[in-house]
Design a protein that fits this description.
With 166 residues, this protein is mainly alpha-helical. Helices cover 69% and strands 2% of the residues.
């Protein structure tokens, strides 16, 4: 059987590849420095459609993983926990936590869950919310560790995450 990118997202993958500066599509096959990571962020933006859940429910799991994690990470990086959590919404962060667990990054998933639990108790105290995240022993706490590990895992396991049988 041949593995293919689902038709529903082929244009999105091509656009993300082009936007990331990849000389190949899909971008996760690129060996260019930073291109797979940039492609993941670009694909998350492409997947941000009117009803992303409806689209994502029809696709292999990698698309939900990319959408939830990279939308959350972009919000968090640009705005910190305070505004990032408010703008992303708790539902997206819950899905991002589940996605981190699915790719084997259980410590990051636990840290996000603890952060959400604290936020539910003290919704206006973002220092406590961030402290709850930081209290978890998490080798992925730093962006420079978390994102490259995630991108590498997704690229190395692309058949499992992004393709369907033709």
């Amino acid at each position: 059987m041949t593995r293919i990118i689902p038709a529903l997202v082929l244009r999105m993958v091509d656009e993300a590849s082009s936007s990331a500066g990849s000389d190949v599509s899909p971008f996760w096959q690129s060996d260019g420095e930073g291109i797979p990571e940039e492609g993941m962020y670009r694909l998350a933006s492409e997947l941000d459609v009117r009803d992303p859940d409806h689209l994502l429910d029809q696709l292999p799991p990698g698309y939900r993983i990319v959408y939830s994690i990279f939308e959350w990470e972009q919000s968090r990086a640009g705005e910190g926990f305070t505004t990032g959590l408010h703008n992303s919404g708790q539902t997206l962060v819950h899905v991002a936590a589940a996605s981190y667990a699915e790719v084997g990054m259980s410590e990051e998933a636990m840290a996000l869950r603890r952060m959400l639990e604290q936020h539910a108790k003290t919704p206006l105290d973002y220092d406590r919310t961030e402290a709850a995240y930081n209290a978890v022993d998490n080798p992925y706490k730093d962006d420079w560790d978390r994102i490259p590990h995630l991108v590498r895992h997704l690229c190395e396991n692309a058949d499992r995450y992004f393709y369907v049988e033709a």
